[in-house]
Amino acid sequence: MAVIGWKSIYETGIVALDNEHRSLIQEINRLYEAVRDKQGEAILVDILTMLEKYTVDHFQHEEKLMEEYHYPRLVEHQKIHQELIDEIQEFKKKNTSGAEDLARELLAFLRVWVLEHILKIDKEYGAFLESRGGRFIV
Fold it and tell me: Are 13 and 43 in contact (CB under 8 A)?
């Protein structure tokens, strides 16, 4: 069972970025299953490591496209991205104790952040990019 099931409403209109979002949601669902089974602590380091890599790779990809297509809210979007990167670093710092509660806290944070970010922020750039380059820009 998934905590977040992919729905068409989450699509930005940019296939490559939607695929990256899907992979993030799969990882959030993996964390959910571990927390549900009281195994969150066991995969917490793995999830945090994945999030560090994902935020670098995915955000660079998004920002490169925004820059390339002259998205007017690029700087604002970069600040939002930096806030998530900072949050992930805070979770890493808190992880010194390896508490199961931290996995639950991370799950709750990610669930809200990802859905709000995709639905409110990413959908805006998706429409902008799609109007200039189509669904299949990479």
Answer: no
Specify the amino acid at residue 44.
Answer: L
Dump strand ranges (E) for the chain: none
**pLDDT tens-digit readout, 49-98:** 999 999 999 999 999 999 988 999 999 999 999 999 999 999 998 886 65
Q: pTM for this one?
A: 0.89
* Domain residue ranges in the chain: 12-133
74-112: b (≥16 Cβ within 10 Å) or e: beebeebbeebeebbeebeebbeeeebebbbebbeebbe
CATH classification (class only), 12-133: mainly alpha
